[in-house]
UniProtKB/TrEMBL annotation:
Protein name per UniProt: Cyclic-di-GMP phosphodiesterase Uncharacterized signaling protein
Residue runs in coiled coils: none
Organism: Thermobacillus xylanilyticus
EAL domain residues: 24-277
Gene name of the record: txxe 3914
């Protein structure tokens, strides 16, 4: 770059920055109102056991129906919620709503499965997180073993703190998954010490399984490692039959992805669930 080009870039960039800052501030203010005005909702995506075909769980994913912008995806608003601290309140709403929904599914006669929610860094650092979750379980009547919490490798950077926090959460009786596994920097020597029940292989490794030998090697290795550490393993972002075949051959236990369904509303999930069961029965009769 020449100095002139740099100056030009700078001049163009500044007003855009302040536009962005204005945008951000507006989103932030809108978000403060969103909880009260019921603009948040959850969508659910199933996790399927690759051996039996059974649904072992669903992941709850947050959506914001903004009055002017329409549906805002989480990567656009969760970082802001995290910075402003609003994430604690929103996150608690997510846990309560997901637990109440899972209890309602059980009461309606669906075979029980786990509902997982994603925790943010700030939530993970709430000193009374375990108590809050216990209170939500009491309130909704859901047994702790039907709840999963997804954390990321970045949350385990402070080893002692992570260990203590996870221990308290395990005391409540919920399941712990390490999400987006392989993209962070978690140390293998600590991984074995943490009370983690499941590794979720990041979808970036799954995406190019058919074309990229390195990704295939990474997926196989994570699956084998999880087995040796007595953890379950889920592949995220499965979109094709070929990926599924590979994962089965590598003894990966579970898969989640558009191959089965995109994340959908609670009602649409129940409809999908019954169709999935029918497909399975049709397969086993053949
Ligand atoms: P995540 O926890 O790794 O969730 C999986 C993401 O992958 C979801 O994106 C899902 O829609 C997407 N996905 C699932 N299957 C496929 C597939 O086959 N192909 C592709 N291309 N994508 C697939 P989503 O819903 O946009 O969420 C993005 C991230 O936002 C989540 O990643 C999670 O880190 C965060 N997030 C979502 N809901 C919450 C929440 O309630 N609280 C917190 N703290 N974070 C959340
Ligand atoms: Mg997740
Ligand atoms: Mg993930
Ligand atoms: Mg991911």
């Amino acid at each position: 770059y020449s100095a002139k080009a740099e100056r030009n870039t700078y001049r163009i960039y500044t007003p855009r920055m302040s536009d962005q800052a204005r945008e951000r501030l507006k989103l932030e203010n809108d978000m403060r109102r969103a909880l009260e005005e019921n603009q948040f909702y959850l969508v659910y995506q199933p996790l399927v056991d690759l051996h039996s075909g059974n649904v072992t769980g669903v992941e709850a994913l947050l959506r914001w129906e903004h009055p002017e912008r329409g549906v805002v995806p989480p990567h656009l608003f969760i970082p802001i919620a995290e910075e402003t601290g609003l994430i604690n309140e929103i996150g608690e709403w997510v846990i309560r709503t997901a637990c109440a929904q899972n209890k309602a599914w059980q009461d309606a006669g669906l075979p029980p499965f786990i509902v997982s929610v994603n925790l943010s860094m700030r939530q993970f650092h709430q000193h009374d997180l375990a108590d809050r979750i216990r209170a939500i379980l009491d309130e909704t009547g859901l047994e702790p073993r039907w709840v999963g919490l997804e954390i990321t490798e970045s949350m385990t950077a402070d080893v002692e703190f992570a260990y203590e926090t996870l221990r308290k959460l395990k005391e409540v009786g919920v399941q712990i998954s390490l999400d987006d596994f392989g993209t962070g920097y978690s140390s293998l020597s600590y991984l074995k010490r943490y009370p983690i029940d499941k590794l979720k292989i990041d979808r970036s490794f799954v995406a190019d399984l058919d074309r990229d030998g390195n990704d295939a090697a990474i997926v196989s290795t994570i699956a084998a490692m999880a087995r040796h550490l007595n953890m379950r393993v889920t592949a995220e972002g499965v979109e094709s039959e070929e990926q599924l075949r590979f994962l089965r051959a590598e003894l990966c236990e579970e898969a989640q992805g558009f191959y089965y369904t995109r994340p959908v509303t609670a009602d649409a999930f129940v409809k999908w669930y019954h169709e999935h069961r029918q497909d399975q029965e049709a397969c086993s009769e053949r």
